[in-house]
UniProtKB/TrEMBL annotation:
Residues 462-515, 598-650, 733-785, 868-920 form the PAC domain. Residues 147-224, 391-429, 658-730 form the PAS domain. Its EC number is 2.7.13.3. Residues 9-39, 506-533, 641-668 form a coiled coil. It catalyses: ATP + protein L-histidine = ADP + protein N-phospho-L-histidine. One of its GO terms (molecular function) is phosphorelay sensor kinase activity. PANTHER family: PAC DOMAIN-CONTAINING PROTEIN, PHYTOCHROME-LIKE PROTEIN CPH1. The keyword Membrane does not apply. Residues 938-1156 form the Histidine kinase domain. The keyword Ribonucleoprotein does not apply. This is histidine kinase. It comes from the Bacteria. It comes from Mangrovibacterium diazotrophicum. InterPro entries: HATPase_C_sf, HATPase_dom, His_kinase_dom, HisK_dim/P_dom, HisK_dim/P_sf, PAC, PAS, PAS-assoc_C.
Length: 1161
């Protein structure tokens, strides 16, 4: 690549400066290029007023120009002036603008104050062209604003009733002038957005459809008669003139209404005063004329006389038409009267340079055909239209004088207009040669033409897009294009227009930038060294003249105007903070007094108000004779370094504070940390670890081997093994062991350790923590012992509850910053990688009552500094709750002010559960003792009662006088008492076997029918004697009744259940039976006895318990029958259940696995 020689001969500093300048020039050129399009977008935005457009345009110009070029902007529109905030006449004159020129477009003048030294340069010439285009754009806005003002005046101040209607919305009122509002009698809010038909005033509703049809075929409707009912319910006759307009695809009509009721009612008005009628007609702000069918003027109002300067009554109506002094077949009078046609025309005759619009309407006047002519002065409207045409002509003049090419095309991309710059740019001989050409021929790449059409078809404009253009001779060059659609008066696209700028020179300039950059990259290392140079400004002070001089770099550091004088050496309040200024003054005085140089750090203030740190140095300057004649020195920007130093100091202080808090937290949680280096065989202990072992933190540190002296002999092997495995596997460990304190006492420690690695992944040591869990272990032992004592016979309590971990926390009140330890996150089920919740978020982690209490103690501690501790109920992530014991203390800054709190939380959920379990076990033991006491009393009764019967009646048998019948009765009683005693003894033996687990089963073939019949026969007599009906209900029959089971145990179950039903049933029925369901053999016993209370159902199967235990001994029995039955059922692999209702009876059901007898082969 060929590199320009002027780059090769420059130093690296010059290359840097030029590269920076080139980049700035490119960036500014791009910014300036966008100004025109930004201002164009403002002008086309309907939401902005003209004043807003001008004000924002000035801001855009001022903010996007290089400060060294453009100092201020001023725009004059008529009597109004608009200026940028810093507009000044000095130090440069307004006449020194754009080479002593200013841009004037219509009523608009644009002034831009430039630096005099730049006037006439190439850069300024580029600015001239750009500012000229800006003036063009603002001129367009001024012209539009003028037209808009004139329309508003014409519309709102017109003496004729005028409104704007939305045709597509059924003639909906969009706006109405004050005359229409006043004459209609309606309020503005009653009209706007209402349809004409909604008002209910039309005598003929078909008028709406007729008007729609008329507007469908033509744009102008004149003299259209409408008959309405006024708001006072009077009939009025109106003449409507309207024009259809299409704005943004919306069809609207601008319509005027003239009330001719009085004119058409002249005959009726003859009864009234002629003078009154005359005054009434003359008050209408329109010229009115009535003509008969011969063309003779029968009536003319005062307004018409003023228009023509004479009274026209008696003259012919064509008197006012030039070159038409005689009636003809096409005369408007005859044509209108004969066929009833209504039309409008204009005339310039007999009234100077005024323009009139004349509307003709045929009607009957005094019973004869006549013509009503209405004259409307439209001079102002025509003048406005001419001004618009003049403005368009001026725009073409402007386009013809700009350097950029301007083109217009139709929808087929055929060129319809170009300015003179276009053929010069594209190599054509004249404007005429380009007219009719296809615009696609101007693209260097045909695909670019298609891209432009596609972009614009999506409703977007072309803004500053770069394309390759082609000249007539086929050569190509780079251009920048801006383009948009052209719309007709109906809002339809009729073509495209755009500006094209030749940027070939800019492209070459950018290529030179690239080459310069490539050259600079070859010296990348040198450039880096140059970039590392400090920013230093210099100064000197002349003692005799008391003047000070600054280098340009010093101005640059402070962002001050280098053309302004620097502040005096003792008048620098604006560039130094008060403390720094005082410090600098003292250094000056000392330097002058001692003649010793100084170097101090100060805080300065830039022009934009930004503070920064500098290092300033100074020394005296002496003359040849040794006299002190001044000072000189440097100012170096060290803001970045100084702020880093400040941040480092803050970080160091914060780290020291955090370390102190960590030590305090470790002391609170009784946690110490340690490190061991393999390379040096040295250890590091935290102060908390020294405290745990009863030692002073400044004690000498033991080596690894010496540290084993603090470990109990029983634990040393376990610790050595854990350390060895950690070193070998590189995996962390958790270990419990005992340590020996300085006073000889033992501590139980929970240690966590992990290896540390060097950069190559080799283990170089260990680090970890030890936590004193002595109290927890002791409490754990106490809990286990208490559990064992409370539930001596319960197997499920095989291990004690483990204590939950301890979590630490810290809260800074001013910033509401909360810090949690990892164990605290685990305690509430949150991810430790997430930030801790703020204090404001804590209510969702506590129950309402707990947070209320926490809030009280926190406020108290923040005010008084007193520590607190309380029990809280916290809510975990899964919405379950846990109990914690929270402790907190005041956190103070270096000045002793309370800035927050810190502390710990201990999970006491297990402890609380254990306390509840202890209470429950105690209650259960007390209940067991009560039941055993009741059982012994019951057994005593059950044994003593039959024994008393046996002994008593045996004694009576010795009586010699007993007859045979009485003797037989006594023997029967003795037998019954013996059987009752035997049953009690057998039950006691069975329950004893059950207690010791000596319940032997003997499975054999059992016939269920036989078992059920035996039980029925066994209890039939007893139940009958008691008046109870015994019923053998549903049962299995056939071969299915042959099963394998323990006959005695099955029979024992049934006997106990039927006996229980018999015991508690005084009358009614007892039913028992069996059935099969889901491979289970079910048995049931149902009675109509006293029933069982619901609070007793859960305990009736317990040993020694009856439902009536503790009330009275109304029902005999040992109270262990149901317990035996339940044990037999469970031994056979089944389950027993009961359903009961007091005073209605009970149903006992049980099932055992169904094991039918296998059929023989």
């Amino acid at each position: 690549m060929n590199i320009p020689s002027h780059y090769l001969n420059k130093s690296k500093e010059d290359l840097l400066t030029e590269l920076e300048s080139l980049l700035n020039e490119k960036e500014q050129a791009l910014k300036e290029l966008k100004i025109i399009h930004q201002i164009s977008a403002l002008i086309e935005n309907p939401e902005y007023s003209f004043n807003e457009i001008i004000s924002q345009a000035i801001t855009i110009i001022h903010d996007n120009w290089l400060l060294s070029r453009l100092q201020s902007v001023k725009v004059i529109i008529g009597d109004q002036e608009y200026t940028s905030p810093n507009f000044e006449v000095t130090p440069w004159k307004l006449t020194e603008v754009i080479s002593a020129e200013y841009n004037e477009i219509g009523d608009l003048q644009l002034f831009c104050s430039e630096e005099p030294s730049l006037i006439g340069t190439d850069t300024l010439q580029h600015s001239k062209e750009l500012l000229h285009l800006i003036a063009v754009k603002l001129g367009e806005a001024a012209a539009k604003n003028s037209l808009q003002k004139k329309f508003n005046i014409t519309f709102h101040q017109s003496p004729v009733a005028v409104c704007i209607l939305d045709i597509d919305a059924g003639f909906q009122f969009l706006d109405a002038n004050e005359t229409l509002i006043e004459e209609s009698g309606y309020k503005r809010e009653e009209l706007i957005n209402k349809k004409l038909s909604d008002l209910g005033i039309l005598k003929n509703p078909d008028v709406i459809d007729d008007l729609k049809e008329s507007f469908h075929s033509k744009e102008l409707i004149q003299g259209y008669p409408i008959q309405i009912n006024s708001i006072e319910n009077e009939i009025k006759y109106l003449i409507m003139n309207a024009r259809k307009l299409s704005i943004n695809s919306q069809n609207i009509a601008v319509a005027s209404f003239i009330d001719i009721t009085e004119i058409l009612s002249l005959k009726a008005s003859e009864k009234a005063s002629n003078e009154f009628n005359r005054l009434l007609i003359d008050s209408i702000p329109l010229g009115l004329e009535i003509v008969n069918q011969d063309g003779k003027i029968l009536f003319a109002n005062k307004v018409l006389k003023n228009m023509f300067g004479e009274d026209l009554v008696g003259k012919t109506c064509w008197y006012s038409y030039r070159n038409n002094s005689q009636p003809c077949d096409t005369c408007p009078v005859k044509k209108t009267i004969q066929i009833g046609e209504t039309f409008s025309s204009e005339t310039n005759e007999l009234i100077g340079n005024r323009t009139l619009q004349v509307n003709h309407t045929g009607f009957r006047y005094k019973g004869k055909p006549a013509l009503l002519k209405i004259f409307i002065d439209i001079t102002e409207r025509r003048k406005t239209e001419q001004e618009l045409r003049d403005a368009n002509e001026k725009l073409h003049v402007i386009f013809d004088n700009v350097d950029d090419a301007y083109l217009q095309t139709d929808n087929n991309a055929t060129i319809t207009y170009v300015n003179p710059a276009a053929p010069a740019m594209f190599g054509y001989s004249s404007v005429q040669e380009m007219m009719g050409l296809q615009a696609d021929l101007l693209y260097g790449k045909p695909s670019d033409a298609l891209d432009v059409r596609n972009i614009m078809a999506q409703g977007e404009h072309i803004h500053d897009e770069t394309y390759l253009a082609k000249r007539k001779d086929g050569s190509v060059f780079w251009v920048s294009m801006n383009a948009r659609y052209i719309y007709d008066e109906n809002g339809n696209i009729k073509g495209r227009q755009g500006f094209i700028r030749d940027i070939s020179q800019r492209q070459e300039f950018e290529q030179q930038l690239i080459e310069a950059k490539e050259t600079a990259e070859r010296n990348e290392q040198k450039l880096r060294e140059a970039q590392e140079l400090a920013k230093i400004g210099s100064w000197d002070w002349d003692k005799q003249t008391n003047t000070i001089n600054w280098s340009p770099e010093l101005y640059h550091l402070l962002k001050l105007n280098p053309n302004l004088p620097p502040p005096g050496i003792y008048q620098s309040e604006s560039i130094y903070t008060p403390d720094s200024l005082e410090k600098l003054s003292a250094a000056f005085q000392e330097c002058l007094a001692t003649e010793k140089p100084y170097a101090i750090t100060l805080e300065m203030v830039k022009a934009d108000g930004k503070h920064f740190f500098v290092k300033t140095q100074g020394r005296i300057v002496k003359s040849e004779t040794g006299e002190v004649i001044g000072l000189q020195g440097t100012v170096q920007d060290i803001d970045r370094r100084r702020r880093l130093e400040i941040e480092l100091t803050k970080a160091k202080n914060k780290a020291e504070a955090n370390e102190k808090k960590l030590e305090e937290a470790q002391d609170i949680a009784r946690i110490g940390s340690w490190e061991w280096s393999l390379t040096t065989n040295t250890t590091q202990w935290s102060p908390a670890l020294f405290h745990l072992l009863g030692m002073e933190p400044n004690s000498s540190l033991p080596t690894y081997d010496e540290s084993f002296a603090f470990i109990s002999p029983e634990s040393r092997t376990k610790v050595e093994k854990a350390v060895s495995e950690c070193l070998q596997n590189g995996e962390p460990f958790i270990l419990e062991f005992e340590m020996i304190r300085a006073d000889g006492s033992f501590l139980t420690m929970l240690s966590r350790g992990r290896p540390t690695f060097d950069a190559t992944g080799v283990v170089i040591g260990l680090q970890g923590t030890v936590q004193d869990i002595t109290a927890q272990k002791a409490l754990e032992s106490d809990l286990i012992r208490a559990k064992d004592i409370a539930e001596a016979n319960a197997k499920e309590l095989n291990e004690a509850q483990k204590l939950a971990g301890i979590g630490s926390w810290q809260w800074i009140a001013g910033t509401d910053t909360v810090t949690w330890s990892e164990s605290f996150f685990t305690l509430v089920g949150l991810d430790p990688s997430l930030p801790a919740p703020s204090y404001a978020e804590l209510p969702k982690f506590h129950t309402e009552e707990s947070f209320s209490r926490l809030n009280v103690v926190v406020e108290h501690s923040m005010k008084t500094g007193e520590p607190f501790e309380l029990e809280l109920e916290m809510i975990k992530k899964d919405r379950s709750t846990t109990l914690v014991w929270s402790k907190g203390n005041a956190l103070r800054d270096e000045n002793g002010r309370i800035i927050g709190l810190y502390g710990t939380v201990l999970d006491i959920n297990a402890q609380k559960k254990l306390e509840a379990d202890l209470i429950k076990a105690k209650e259960k033991a007390e209940e067991s003792n009560r039941l055993k006491t009741a059982f012994l009393l019951n057994m005593s009764h059950e044994i003593r009662t039959p024994m008393n019967g046996i002994l008593g009646f045996m004694g009576l048998l010795d009586e010699p006088d007993l007859d045979a019948e009485t003797r037989s009765e006594f023997i029967s009683i003795i037998n019954q008492s013996g059987e009752r005693l035997m049953t009690t003894i057998n039950d006691l033996l069975e329950i004893s076997k059950i207690e010791i687990g000596d319940l032997n089963l003997h499975f054999a073939e059992v016939d269920l029918r036989e078992v059920m019949k035996f039980k029925y026969d066994f209890f039939k007599i007893q139940t009958a004697n008691k008046g109870i009906h015994l019923k053998l209900g549903q049962q299995i029959t056939g071969e299915s009744a042959q099963i394998i089971s323990d006959r005695n145990k099955l029979g024992g179950i049934m006997i106990n259940l039927i006996r229980n039903a018999f015991k508690f049933t005084d009358n009614g029925e007892i039913e028992f039976g069996n059935y099969l369901k889901d491979d289970k053999l079910w048995f049931y016993v149902t009675d109509t006895g006293i029933g069982i209370p619901q609070d007793k159902i859960d305990v009736i199967f317990d040993r020694f318990v009856q439902a009536d235990l503790g009330l009275s001994r109304e029902y005999e029995g040992s109270g262990i029958g149901l317990s035996i039955a339940k044990a037999y059922v469970e031994a056979l692999g089944g389950e027993i259940e009961v359903k009961s209702e007091v005073d209605k009876g009970s149903t006992f059901s049980f099932w055992i696995p169904y094991s039918p007898v296998s059929k023989p082969l």
